[in-house]
Structures are given as structure tokens and as C-alpha cells.
Amino acid sequence: MIRSPTLGCLLGLAIALCDVAASAQPVRLGVRIVNTPPGMERVLRGVRGAFVNAVSPGSIGLSAGIRPLDLITAVNDQATPNASAMLEAVNGLAGPPRSVTVLRDGRLLELQPGAVAAGAPQPGVCAAYVVYSRPDDASGLVSGPWPVDDPADPVAVGGLLDRFAAYAHTIDPKLDAPGMNRRGCDPGEGTGGVDCWAASGRFGVAGFGAIECANDVDKITAFNGRDLGWKPPQAAGR
Q1: Which residues contact 2 (CB under 8 A, 6 or more apart)?
Q2: Mean pLDDT of 114-128
Q3: Is the bond preceding 145 in cis, omega lying within 30 degrees of 0?
Q4: What gap in Å lies between CA 54 and CA 214, rounded to an integer?
Q5: How, if at all, do strands 194-199 and 182-187 pair?
Q6: Nearest CA to 31 among 131, 80, 201, 47?
Q7: Domain range annotation of the chain
Q8: Is it the case that residue 177 has pLDDT exceeding 70?
Q9: Which residues contact 214 (CB under 8 A, 6 or more apart)?
């Protein structure tokens, strides 16, 4: 989903792109933020903040290590219970913030701009899917989204797909992971990420698995099935 940040600022919407502004701002974090999505409230355990959908390359936010799916709860120890409060806190700064506090995986982390080396890859998110080839089967098994260091790395994403396919086989033996002998990775068109997929040679009987990665949560296909709750080891503890 692509939105116009300038229009969003003019209309006073909750969505804002801090590195592209309708008027001059003293500081630009370079993160797209939204109010906490209703579906995330249970996961966030009632903590309020500005939910990060995307982080711009070369930005202050990237240098601080902010990731998509982070919840920004404070800037320089000033609470930011929603997107508007975070914009107000940033607009009041004369220079880069000393610290940005985020909730990530149930933990509050205090991040400092400049802590991440220049040239680090733009962080992103991935989601995994199982889709059956027969419409009478129970389709729509999903897992994610979860954060990744580099959503455009096909080798890393392909490895995640292999692990997910093995896990999916434990959910449904028809998803024969060793039998998924057709596979590949393609650049995600306009997503800043990559899509990897695996299909069985017995496609009429089994199904296929796919992992979709992007640098923006909004560019990940919306979930509409049963979440398998799988999380790759690489994403643990972030």
C-alpha cells in the first residue's frame, strides 16, 4: 500500500512520514509511524506508542537501530503514547534525539542515534504462507510478520523458507518439505524486499510455501488465515 505523506499531513491523519514533511521540520527521524493497530494491542500488552511501519535508508532512525514492528514509547524520555505525540516530541527537538525508547519483543529498549554503522541494510519484515492447491482444503495458514536484518537478501530468506517448510510439514503431512523440489526467489516488485517460494512436484496433491519480505509492513500481504505462530530463530530476542 502506497500512501502520500504530504496529503496525510494536510489531512491530519494518524499516518506520517517523518523524513518527508509538508513543512520544514528541525529533525527527521526517517520512520513511518501509525497509531497502534488494533490487532497488535494484545501482543503489546497495553503499552501505548507510535507503531513503526518502515524505516528509511540513511536516516536517524536507521542509525539508532529502529526496526519495523517497533513501538516508539518515548523520545528523550518524553512519553509518546501515539503517533501525534511522537511527531510533537520530534518537532520540538533542535537536533537529533539523545535516545529513542522502543518496545520490541516485549522488552523496552533505549536506542541511541549513531549506534548502528553507516551503510547498514534497511531493516524489514517477513511473513510466511502455506497455500493449498485444492480449494476444498483448509487454506490460509500463515506466520508472522517478524523483523529481519535485510529483507532483500535471497540467501537468508531462502534459508528461512526451508525451515518454515519443515515446520509446516509437522502441521500437515501433505506439505511434504523434501518433496518441494521447485523453488526460487524473485525481487519483490516495489517492496524493497524479496519473495521466495517452494512448490511440490505433486502440486495437484500438496501445496506450496512462500516467504514474502519487504521494507515496509504495509507492503506485506494482509493476513486472513490461521496464524501458525512460527518464528524463525534468527528473529528471536530482538
Answers
A1: 190, 218
A2: 90
A3: yes
A4: 9
A5: antiparallel
A6: 80
A7: 5-111, 124-235
A8: no
A9: 124, 125, 151, 188, 191, 192, 193, 220
CB 23 within 8 A of CB 188: no
User: What are the C-alpha distances in Å from 21 to residues 84, 118, 123?
Assistant: 14, 23, 22
- Contact between 121 and 154 under an 8 Å Cβ cutoff? The reply is no
Site of grid cell 502441521: 171
Residue scoring higher pLDDT (10 or 73): 73
Task: For residue 25, give the nearest of 81, 70, 86 by alpha carbon.
Answer: 86
| The CATH fold of domain 5-111 | Pdz3 Domain (2.30.42)
Calculated CA dihedral for residues 82, 83, 84, 85, nearest 10 degrees: 50
Average pLDDT, integer, range 12-23: 41
User: pTM here?
Assistant: 0.79
Which residues make beta-bridge pairs with 35? 50
